[in-house]
Amino acid sequence: MNCWRTWDLSSGWIGITWESAVSSQAAPLPLSPCSWKPWGDAGCKHGLTRPVVYKLIAQMLAGTGKMALKSGDHPGQMKDAVCSPAGTTIVGVSTLEKNGFRFAVIDAIDQIQNKIHGKA
Residues 97, 104: contact at Cβ < 8 Å? Predict the structure, then answer.
């Protein structure tokens, strides 16, 4: 089992397994298939069929993943690269931030970590 050390403010050094890290970071992915339903609803609201929306989401995730792996850019750089001044993407990003997207993702990971470590 791969394990590395990280600092926990309350107890000092603790071991983190690869499985724990992957579980906490990958499980709540905001665009994981379990959360595609709102995207499908929004697409349907605006005239797209759900199969088309789901295919677009899958292509977006694949493209973004490939771009991240190939470029090695920081996510903030990637976001900045695709957000035009007064464009549609920055409007969407702003709306997600206004509605607590960042906090929801962090909170989901916190809850998963609590569950993994028996604190839930």
Answer: no
